[in-house]
Amino acid sequence: MEIIRSTGAMQAWSRRQRLAGRVIGLVPTMGYLHEGHLSLMRMARERADAVVVSIFVNPTQFGPGEDFDRYPRDFAGDEQRCRSEGVEVVFYPDAAEMYPPEYSTYVVEEALGQGLCGTSRPGHFRGVTTVVAKLLNLTLPDVAVFGEKDGQQLRVIRRMVRDLNFPVMIVAGPTTREADGLAMSSRNVLLSPEDRIQAPAIWRALSAARLACDAGQVDAAGLLALVRDAITREAPRAHLDYLALVDDETLRPVEKIERPALLAVAAFFGATRLIDNIVLTPRPV
Predict the structure, then answer these.
(1) How many CB atoms lie within 10 A of CB 167?
(2) Closest residue by Cα to residue 120 from 285, 284, 264, 282
């Protein structure tokens, strides 16, 4: 396995692979890798001859007062996990390499990124789309794999790739969960013991909404009240950042589920922000 730190070396490696006819798969991460990331690497391996994992805690997607400095980091552990998955390259640049002095160019998606996390984290998706565009240009992948846990991010990236004609297939990987249902996240390590006990209530509440939808409940107000009440009851330490039911494609709020809809939650446990989501589909008539 090769560790590449410079943008020039990364792009040169990718060009050599493309000239040799090899299919490149990219798994973008911010490190502190867990089983969810490893599952995305395996999906990339199924579709590619060479897998690149990028590890970069991207400063431009963090706002003032957010957890950039607290975000967990463990490159030695990440390197070991990548080796265990047979990854060909770990791209591990520093911020100065990705954003040189007087950097002033950003990529902005102006529709799907406006609500949900876009509302509570202004500028977040500008940082996400910019860094993903750069990673696509540097690694030149045929396929890139993103997790479904970051549901809005996945849809924003798909839109960017479509609109800007990036020649890459975006593949979605299912959310990997702990035994108690909590979505795996690098931030979970920041939870206090008490918060860790209560955090799985988010997934239980989303699962209850899916059961209600399957039973015929399609009214948004009722489903949102069900989720809110369940989280309030089972996780009193949680502070909801947002709870929303939006169209699965447009991400605009819906009053009734008439086609697939994304039920999305963001909640703070102390200073740690967790997100989760589920796609609800109306029962066939």
Answers:
(1) 9
(2) 264
pTM of this structure? 0.97
| Residue 128 to residue 56: CA distance in whole angstroms | 11
Distance CA(181)–CA(206), nearest Å, equals 11
Helix boundaries (H) for 105-219: 117-120, 124-139, 151-163, 193-198, 201-214
Decide if 34 is catalytic. no
**Is the sign of the CA dihedral 54, 104, 15, 162 positive or negative?**
positive
- Residue 95's CB: how many other CB atoms inside 10 A? 13
In this model, does residue 29 exceed pLDDT 80? yes
- Report the alpha-carbon distance of residue 116 to residue 261 in Å, rounded: 14
The string of pLDDT tens digits covering residues 257-269 is: 999 999 999 999 9
SS3 at position 72: coil
Q: Label residue 284 by pLDDT band (50, 70, 90).
A: confident
Spatial contact of 41 and 14, defined as CB atoms under 8 Å apart: no
Question: CA 184, 187, 192: angle at the middle one, nearest 5?
Answer: 105
The answer, yes or no, to whether residue 183 has pLDDT greater than 80, is yes
Look up residue 112 and give its two tokens: 């799907």
Of the candidates 48, 38, 42, the one whose C-alpha atom is nearest the C-alpha of residue 17 is 48
The catalytic position among 34, 37, 124, 239 is: 37
End-to-end C-alpha distance for the chain, whole angstroms:
53
Angle, CA 150 vertex, CA 10 and CA 39 arms, to 5°:
65
